[in-house]
Each structure stands twice: as C-alpha cells, then as structure tokens.
C-alpha cells in the first residue's frame, strides 16, 4: 500500500488536527510543487486549495486531471488523519475519481470528508471544484479507501 | 468529463502514433513539471517514465501516490490515443488506482494498454512500477474509462 | 458496455418517470428473483428496496455484497433513466462499491441520484442501507458512470 | 466492511483450498440461487461459472450486470481465500467493475486471481466472460480490495 499522508511524532497525546495535517502536508514535495495549501481542517474533514499555474495544466490549459485526483486524494486522506490515533499513519489503499466537468478557473478547491471510520480502514470522499470569475463548479468526485497503520521507523523518519 | 490527453491538428489522415502522443504530451505543463517522458508507443499501448526527484515525493520520500496515479492515467489515456481516429480526442471519464507497494527507486515506469476499444468509450489499464537498484517492482494498478470526442475549437486550440 | 437499465417503447414523448422505471424494472429477471421493488422515483432519483430472504445472503446470513452492489447499481441507473430522453436507454459503463458495514436487517434500501448529467454520460451515486429493528444503517456506497445510447432494435425488443 | 467470502472451521491447519472454497461457497444463498458453481481453484486463483437462466438476466435477456459483478467479486474473493491463513476470513472492502461488452450466451465464466497479497489487504482482479456458440468473449473486468480478518464467533457460526 502506498502514499502515507501523515505521521505524528510518536507522542500518544491527541494533537491539534490542523497542526497535524499541516506538519505532514509541508513535507510533501508534490504539494509544495503544486503550490497547494490547507485551507481548513475539522474533525473528519479537510479542505485544500491549489492556485492556477502553467504547471498544473494539461494540454488545454485546464487543470490537469492528475492534479485534481491528487488534491482530492489528499483532502480525503487528511480528513482521515484528523480522526486517526496519534500513533497511526494514514495510507491510501485505493481511490476512484470521476471527472464531472472541465476544470478551468483561478483555483481548485478540494473538500474531503470521512464517510465511515473503522478500526483499520476508513472510507472517505472528496469533491473537487474549480473556482473562478463565474463562481464555483464541481469538476470531480473521489471515493477512497485509506488504512491506518502503526507508525514505523521506516515511515516516521 | 475532463482531462484531454490528446488532439491531432484537424487533419483526417492517420498520424504516426508516437508523434501524436508526443505532440500532446509536450503541451502538458504537469508532465514537464514532473520530468516525465514517453518511452514507447505502440498500437494500443504507451509507456511513460518519471525520474525520481524531491518534487514528486510525499512526506516519506516515496513517489507520491498522485504522481503514480497521474502517470498511470496518462499511460492508459495515451494508449487509447494511439487507436483514436485523427479527428477525435481522448478524455478520461474516470479511473481507479490501487496502490500495491511503496514506490521507492530511481524512476517510475507506467505501462498503459487498451483493454477494449468501443466506438465512443475505451477501457484501459496501466501498471506502474518503481525501478531501482533492486530491480523493478509493481507499485500500482490503474483501471480506467476514457471517451473519444470530436475535437472542437475549444479543445483543439 | 453492458446492462441496459431501461428502454421506452419507441415513443418520443416524455413518459412518466415512475412508469418508465417500473416498466423496465419488471422485465429484469434478477430483480424479480431478489424480490426487489421500486419505492420512489423522482427527477434524477430512485429508491429501491429488497426484503431479507435466504436467497440474498452470503454465508453469514448477511445480505450478500453482490445484492448490495446490484441494488445500488440499479438505483443509480434508474435515477439516470428519469432524466434520459425517451429515445435513449441507460447502460452502466462501470461502478465502484465500497462496503461500509455488515448489512443485516429486514430489508435493504438503495437511494440513487444523478450527480451530473452530460449529453452522453451521467455520473450517479447511491447509498445502500440495511433497515431493521435497530433503525437504519448505511452499509455501502456506490459511484457509477452510465451512458445514454440510442434505443436500437436489438436492445428495445 | 462487508461480505465475508469464507471462513475455515477454527482449525489452524492448512486446508485444501478447493475444499475450503467449496465449503464457503455452498453456504452462500445467492450463489445457489444463481446456480453458480466453482470450476477450479488454485493457489491464488479461482474460476466460477453461472449457467444462463431467466433469473439472471436484465430486461434484454443479457446476463444482468449485477450477476456479472457478483461472480467477478466472488472469483476474486475466493482467489484470495486460497492464500489466506486458516484462521482468517476474507471480506470484500470494495470493488470496481467495468462492463466491456454485452454478456449473452450459455454461461458466464469468472476467473479471479490475486494481484498482490499483503499482510492484511489483498488486491485481486477478475475477468468475466460470456461463453456461447460463438466462443468466449470477455464482458467485464473487476479490480478489488479484500481484507483478511480474524474469524470471530460472530462470523464463523
């Protein structure tokens, strides 16, 4: 399984969800590269935005589907992280993304939330919208399975 | 539906698949950003590679799942493009990615192929492997639906 | 592509959605076999229920995942049919189902709705709940792509 | 998570995979209802067939997509069961099915196999074909995540 989206520092105390998400987020090279930032974090929810730039487009100057999938996946994964025990990390097992409309605008906004939280597996979803002069339009929806794993030396360094 | 992965120049002649894929590929800001390149193109298949860099990692220095999903999606979409009539473009309707193992190594290699080619919809799949000193290891598999659409002024410019 | 979920009788008038759904539904051998019935039909929505019986279980006497997937798929597909032009039929291109909790109770209720309606492709979703003495509990969620196709002699007989 | 596809009898010995699969299979009301039977079981693979009957059709007398999904899901799940420790049961976490062609013929044959076997999660796939006078034609492909869980009193009775 792949793609850890978070690992607390080994403490067993409950940490502030926003801080926990941001600490993990800042260590993701890809999110930096995309200029993504965490807008909002709640218990079981997370909102991420990505500003438009030439780097995040496909050949038609729309936001690239891969970027849409990436922020949707991340928004769902970080939503799960807000509910995970401090000694657990969150890994994406799989996700499916349906593209609903071309994504054109000033930024992408991905809103992730936990659908069900099990002991080891969470199911999450995320809607991704393009926001521009004409308002906001949903452009993709993501349905995702994430797993909670013990943080190991390998993953927590 | 989203994410055009290719559009020929309005000619009705069959174009060289490799040239067709590369022309489209070079216009994708994201693929440039990732340093991705097309390795091989056949009738109904396409192989893409992405070298390791700090920009394509998640917080554990593995390849980011979003990058894995992106190259898998692209490999499948470009495999479809090789079989598309010259006046059609290929759009990803949806894809699902299962992460199979952590992706660590010098590069990612995504091999896409067409499973079935309908009149309007293709089903494609792609396997993504991490290649390093220890050989090659499959790290994700993608199952994808793409649609063929007439190239419009909006999409072909 | 497979699994037509509806075809009107060749008339080009707008038909009553409930009648349209029921006419198609009654012709499905599998739905009869499961004892399924259409509870409610709206513009872009459809609710189906399946009573508990020994025939719809897996080895643990829970509702079988296949039955859950089937009614979820059907609820989404019929939701699409309510918005389809009278000369079009609805076919499921693909669906994904996440199982959220064991499904035990007196009946299954699947609520499907259209997420986005395109010219040729719809994206739909459905939630499936188990209903029993302890109330209602969501047990699965479905995300689905359906296509609209002209009704042909082959499919409309 | 839902849909157990198998549970051994509490013994810790490795049991014959074919026997293990058949024991579980026979307890599935739905599989009996469909007339399904296990054709072949290997280490990490399983083949199931379903004969044509009026009960397994949709409104066009093709095999119903739900039946196709069900046997694909089961073929993958039972493939996983062949590799599961005797004290574990196999539950489907989620699956995605793409329908590739109308399924018409004398029987459906679903061939499931394990793609990767983790400690707690397996990824499996299955191809489902329709077999008739004109030979065999693949009509659907399934990509699936299953989990291994300890057999509990609740599930093993």
TrEMBL record, chains A, B, C, D:
Residues 63-132 form the Thioesterase domain. CDD domains: PaaI_thioesterase (cd03443). SUPFAM superfamilies: Thioesterase/thiol ester dehydrase-isomerase. Residues 11-21 have a biased composition (Basic and acidic residues). Residues 1-21 are annotated as: Disordered. It comes from the Bacteria. This is Hotdog fold thioesterase. It holds the Pfam family 4HBT. Belongs to the thioesterase PaaI family. Keywords: Hydrolase. GO terms for molecular function: fatty acyl-CoA hydrolase activity.
């Amino acid at each position: 399984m792949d793609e850890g989206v978070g690992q607390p520092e080994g403490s067993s105390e409950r940490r502030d969800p926003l801080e926990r998400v941001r600490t993990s987020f800042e260590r993701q090279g890809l999110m930096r590269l995309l200029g993504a930032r965490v807008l909002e974090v709640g218990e079981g929810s997370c909102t991420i935005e990505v500003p438009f730039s030439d780097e995040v487009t496909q050949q038609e100057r729309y936001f690239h589907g891969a970027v849409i999938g990436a922020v949707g996946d991340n928004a769902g994964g970080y939503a799960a992280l807000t509910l995970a025990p401090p000694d657990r990390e969150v890994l994406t097992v799989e996700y499916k993304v349906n593209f609903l409309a071309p994504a054109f605008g000033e930024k992408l906004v991905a809103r992730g939330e936990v659908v069900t939280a099990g002991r080891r597996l969470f199911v999450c979803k995320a809607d991704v919208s393009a926001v521009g002069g004409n308002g906001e339009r949903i452009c993709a929806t993501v349905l995702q399975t994430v797993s909670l794993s013990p943080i190991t030396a390998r993953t927590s360094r």
